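Dissemination and training. As part of the outreach component of the grant, students in the summer workshop were shown how a complex can be specified as a set of sequence lines and then modelled as a single object. The example used during the hands-on session is reproduced here so that future cohorts can follow it. Participants entered these lines:
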Amino acid sequence: MKSKLKLIDESGRRIDGRLLDELRPLRFEVGILKNADGSAYIEQGGNKIAVAVYGPREVHPRHQARPDRALLRTKYRMATFSVKDRKSPTPGRREIEISKVIREALEPALLLEKFPRTAIDVFIEVLQADGGTRCASISAAALALADAGIPMRDLVTAVAVGKVDGRIVLDLNHLEDQYGEGDMPVAMMPSLNAITLLQCDGTFTLEEFKEALELAKKGIGVIYEKQREALRSKYLDALKTYRVI
Amino acid sequence: MIKVKREKIKIVLPGEVVKVGDIKTTTEVIKLDDKLVSTLIGIPKMKRRRGERVLSVLPLKTPYIPKEGDIVIGKIVDIGVTNWLVDINSPWKAILPISEVLSKPVNVSKIELKDYLNIGDLIVARVIAFDLTRDPLLTIKESRLGKATRGLFLELSSWDWLLLKSKEKTLLRGVKKKANCNIVLGANYRVLMIGKGLEEELKALEIVRETLGRRST
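and obtained this result:
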């Protein structure tokens, strides 16, 4: 749906006042839930997402267990109050698909073969949605998995890039996502320089695609540092409660 | 490991390069080309093993993976026909067969397993077999193993437990002397304090807390 809504003004500022390559305000928190084995929370612009990780634990139903590695199960869910119009609480086609792509984005980072015949459950609850929830969910889920002590090759970091008013922009918000011309979520393991998720919706020329991917890498670098900072500060704080060190 | 000064503490995160070079490593460190990358959140440490330098990361949080020979503290969660199922705080439930509890062969149809160990009972056991393809196997047919009829039970984080373990000798002596208690450090991050009564056990708990050096709680 094309509209006359102007998403980028004459001075090159976007609808929320950001520059083309600027991220939304971002905040991570690790270990927000006591009963989960690992947990994390992300606020990215208007997105508010909580992630809980349970496991490795026994698989139920039993026949789903893999004899050679752990089973990774993700459940992405949007709260009924997460969007303007009440969302039906039943998981829809979109939520099931996003659960799947998030799982496949996280899987390459995990050393699942260390826990055969077990399951690792990742529950993602979107409390407030403002575009780019799948990317925010991936970044937060990686932190929750690390917090649960599950061995990983690297953290996974994700961001969306897109085409708005013919320009390539970083970290789309809800309006840009809806009225822009293209949307491309990218997830990476930054230290390994490996892409684990690449989706694309809309039309990009080859040059635009290359530009978008470079922009995504740049954004991911910034988010990665924030992720590491959040993890490190939680565990350093925990160590400080000991007198002995 | 706990003698590190706070300012000097270096935490590594998953994906972080701990060292570059050709050094032997333990399982929590993986090799990518010549880079040695941590897979967990932890504190890097060089060990010497048989004259060789080995790089390891002491994890700040990790699930318990059973090892043959480990003494663990388990809780009976289910009773089968010829075995008990035991929760040992690991991703896998452990199996305790009758033959590892009773010394004589018995007729299963004539005895009730729950007369020996019932659901909810705590046991101190040894892991006798585990290799990832089958669930861990336990035994209580040794001295100092068996059902805990009374005691105070603690479940710690893996890091708290490592701290306690590194001071095991002092702790055992201290608890014995000051609180007149026995203390079992299960390898599965669980601690059991057994004394004559609750009073002694609470005293032991206080000593454990002091050993952990917690400022709060």
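The first helix of chain B runs from residue 158 to 166. Students were then asked to discuss how this feature might be tested experimentally.
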